[in-house]
Every structure is written in C-alpha cells, then in structure tokens.
C-alpha cells in the first residue's frame, strides 16, 4: 500500500454530507471544510454547470470525495432524487446542510409576487423539503441537520419584507424541528450569520469586504459543531463580524 492510501485509511471518517447551494459562497466554504475533515460531500446547485465547476475546484481538497448535483430546492422531487443518488453512491447521509438561499430586497410597494414566492419557496420551503427528503437517512445514521438562517431572522430592516419573513420563518422552523426529531437521535442547529463576504445577491467581492465574516469561517464553524459530543447541542448560533466599520 502506498503512502497516500495509508494516510487515507488512517484518517478517512467515511461520513457523508449534502450541502444545498454548495457551488459558491457559504455552501462552498462548508464543503471545503468538510472535505478537509474527511467527509464525502455532495454539493447541489440549480445549475449543473456551476455544480460541476465547483467540484473541479474542490478536487484534491482534503481526502473526501466530492460530487455535484443539479437540484432545485423548491422541488421536493428534486431533493428526494438527490438524497436517493447520494445513498446509492455512498450508502448513508450523516449531515444535511440546508444552505441554498436567495435575496430580493425592495420596498413592499415595489416587491413583485414572483420575488416574494421565489424568496419564500427557496429560503423556507426549501429547507422543509430538505428535512423531509433526508429524514429517514439521518435517523438511520443518527445524523445532523443544519440550516443557514441569518441575523435577518431576528432583526428586521427596511426593504427586506420577503427576506426577513423567510429567515424569521427559517429560524423558528429549525428550532421546532429540533424539538421534533431529537428523539430520533438527529441533532439540529441553525446558524445565523451577519455580514458575509460572498457574491450573494449580485455583490462583487473586494478588499473592502475584509472586515466581514469569510465563507471559510462558516465552514470551520460547521466542522467544529460536528465534532461536539452528542450530549451537547448548540441549537441556535449567531455569528457576526467582530469589528464592523464605523458609520
């Protein structure tokens, strides 16, 4: 056996994670971190091309394997098919990170019906479909379900009626789900980041974003949560930049 295979045998943990919206931003940062921890990771995106591009970049990161799947989180059938494909490939699901999200920011006077429905269907109904699709697999592995909410899930602001509604709903939804399924041995956490340096909502990342939370910071946080003793449950975590710029 060569040295590389020996190392893999000693450190591979043979656990499997699914991350929705994993082709960029926070989801990509989580995928990168879990691959370094030895997880096999499936990332999803509405765009198969973006998913496969992300897989190319993630190849060789850590020792876990990575695949990309085209999934629309607004479709229960699409999420169910993804879980089935992962089970067929790796035989288990240990972690499901419901990360995919969109943001439409406008006054209620300008917010369209389409923007409202896309926000709610992606940010709130999407995680509902995620846990329904993965529940049996997570119960079998005594696994972990994580949602990526936002500080906007407890703090409302002007021009964010749809986004606030989706994230307030996601925060409450996740906490209720935690109470529902902890008896099955499934742990549940919602992470609520503040300002994160990503291309979310068309933002162009620059040096001026250095003060913000970085995607790898959220990745490290997820990895740390998964290492905690199963007797302890950090059910809701707020994370914000340490020192925002002065206004």
UniProtKB/TrEMBL annotation:
Keyword Cytoplasm tagged: no
Residue ranges occupied by any Ketoreductase domain in the UniProt entry: 15-197
SMART domains in alphabetical order: PKS_KR (SM00822)
Gene Ontology terms for molecular function: oxidoreductase activity
Stored Gene3D superfamilies: NAD(P)-binding Rossmann-like Domain
Keywords: Oxidoreductase
GO cellular-component term (any): cytosol
A Pfam entry, by short name: adh_short
Membrane-crossing segments per the record: none
Family in the record: Belongs to the short-chain dehydrogenases/reductases (SDR) family.
UniProt xrefs under PANTHER family: RETINOL DEHYDROGENASE-RELATED, SHORT-CHAIN DEHYDROGENASE_REDUCTASE FAMILY PROTEIN
Protein name: Ketoreductase domain-containing protein
Organism of origin: Albibacterium bauzanense
Lineage: Bacteria, Pseudomonadati, Bacteroidota, Sphingobacteriia, Sphingobacteriales
């Amino acid at each position: 056996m060569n040295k590389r295979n020996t190392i893999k045998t000693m450190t591979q943990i043979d656990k499997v994670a699914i991350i929705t919206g994993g082709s960029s931003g926070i989801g990509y940062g989580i995928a990168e971190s879990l691959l370094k921890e030895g997880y096999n990771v499936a990332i999803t995106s509405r765009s198969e091309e973006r998913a496969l591009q992300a897989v190319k970049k993630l190849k060789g990161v850590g020792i876990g394997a990575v695949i990309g799947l085209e999934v629309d989180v607004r479709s229960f059938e699409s999420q169910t098919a993804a879980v089935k494909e992962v089970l067929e490939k790796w035989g288990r699901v240990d972690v499901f990170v419901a990360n995919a999200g969109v943001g439409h920011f406008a006054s209620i006077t300008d917010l369209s019906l389409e923007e409202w429905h896309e926000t709610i269907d992606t940010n709130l109904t999407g995680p509902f479909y995620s846990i329904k699709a993965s529940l049996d697999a997570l119960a079998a592995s005594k696994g972990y379900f994580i949602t990526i909410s936002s500080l906007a899930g407890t703090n409302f602001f002007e021009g964010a009626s749809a986004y606030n509604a989706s994230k307030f709903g996601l925060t409450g939804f996740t906490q209720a789900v935690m109470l529902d399924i902890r008896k099955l041995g499934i742990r549940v956490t919602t992470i609520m980041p503040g300002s994160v340096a990503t291309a979310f909502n068309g933002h162009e990342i620059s040096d001026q974003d250095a003060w913000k939370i970085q995607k790898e910071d959220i990745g490290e946080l997820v990895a740390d949560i998964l290492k905690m003793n199963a007797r302890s449950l950090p059910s809701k975590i707020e994370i914000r930049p340490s020192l925002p710029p002065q206004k």
